[in-house]
Amino acid sequence: MSARILVVDDQPANVRLLEAKLQAEYFDVCTAVDGFAAIEAAKLEQPDLILLDVMMPGMDGYETCRLLKDEPRTRHIPVVMVTALDQREDRIRGLESGADDFLTKPIDDVTLFARVRSLLRLKTVLDELRHRESSDALSYVMSEPIGDLDSVARAVVISGDPRAATRYAAAMPAQVRTQVETDPVTGLEAARSNADLLIVDLTSPGFDGLRLCARIRADAATRQLPILAVINPGDTPSAVRALDLGVNDIIHRPVDAGEMMARVSTQLRRKRYADRLRTQLDESLEMAITDPLTGLHNRRYIASRLHQAMESSNNGGAPVSLLIADIDHFKSINDRYGHEGGDYVLRGFAERVQRDLRALDLAARYGGEEFVIVMPGAGLAEARGASERLRASIASEPFDLGDGRSACVTVSIGCAQAEDGESAESLLRRADEALYLAKDEGRNRVEAAHSAAA
Ligand SMILES: [Mg+2]
């Protein structure tokens, strides 16, 4: 994995040592010798990971980390604090300042690279989400602070040792509802049913926690679920295997309640952030193809689907037909009942369109009171029949306007079947000409297009 890592340390010798180790593993390394330079370098170089020394003159690592996490341009970059201290207060203070992880000097290479790989994997996922999101106008999520954990979260603790499991559960932050499981099978079920975090004990004998972690990562329903693993101090091989399996964080026994709380909060905050990015991505994808008023497809989406259907038809596939429907005298509906009344008519119209369509037909609001329906597989006779049914269904009963009133509405429709080698523009033009003929002939009518050759 080629990634750029920013190394920050006030001792040039430490910088050179880490730089050499990382470059030997083919990482791209940039460096800074104090907190201010680190923040500038992070903004400018956009590293994938920051290794940050805690003890520095001037601004220390905690303050630097806090500023990095406050700055929208650097907030998403994982920070690993590097410290000579291994006191619980220092670890907790670091986690509270927003650090993603901790390494103790002298740095053990195996642990260093396992941590780096684990955080880079996580960042790749978040970057992918951010990248897709930033192409859209709804990218405001990045300019907002991640925020504190205010709402309730669900955690599942899985351990072969019931007493240890109860102790871990007792160390959870107050807003976390915790479920304790001592059997891997029921633990896996609990994880699948809407958990926000999993704590897996890798220390209890006769209990294969690593296998459980692997199964959780292999299952689509739990692939994104954060896992915090409990291991014995000094059990570096288990820690490295766990991180390589996709475990998000490690905590050592005996578990300190304050540290557990800080690590759990970090994982939950990160998950909430990723969930929000995913939701917004889904919403923006939905918005990109849907007309917000009627819930039908929008013009851009139907145009691309029409091109696809015509291409396959031109390549010897099934025929394609097209309907253009325009609500008659819509301006006078708006004048008489107001725009709100007009919106009721548009929504009611869309409902009747959808009710009458075949499953594979695609309907879009094309603009104003104009609708386009693409009928893959349908010839002209079938399109004409569908048009007539829609016309009759619109005229059959008045539209409810939501305020006790109702309006009688009619529609005119032009339909056309795509011909060999015809372009979408030409098909739309012929259907549109048929529509204008229907309007000319007195409205509340269906007209079929003439052949393009005629
Ligand atoms: Mg130092």
From TrEMBL:
Its EC number is 2.7.7.65. It is an enzyme of class 2 (transferase). GO terms for biological process: cell adhesion involved in single-species biofilm formation; negative regulation of bacterial-type flagellum-dependent cell motility; phosphorelay signal transduction system. Keywords: Phosphoprotein. Residues 4-120, 154-268 form the Response regulatory domain. It catalyses: 2 GTP = 3',3'-c-di-GMP + 2 diphosphate. Signal peptide: none annotated. PROSITE patterns: GGDEF, RESPONSE_REGULATORY. Residues 318-451 form the GGDEF domain. One of its GO terms (molecular function) is diguanylate cyclase activity. SUPFAM superfamilies: CheY-like, Nucleotide cyclase. The modification 4-aspartylphosphate is found at residues 53, 201. It holds the Pfam family GGDEF. The keyword Nucleotidyltransferase does not apply. InterPro entries: CheY-like_superfamily (IPR011006), Diguanylate_Cyclase (IPR050469), GGDEF_dom (IPR000160), Nucleotide_cyclase (IPR029787), Rev_trsase/Diguanyl_cyclase (IPR043128), Sig_transdc_resp-reg_receiver (IPR001789). It comes from the Bacteria. PANTHER family: DIGUANYLATE CYCLASE DGCM-RELATED (PTHR45138:SF9), REGULATORY COMPONENTS OF SENSORY TRANSDUCTION SYSTEM (PTHR45138). This is diguanylate cyclase.
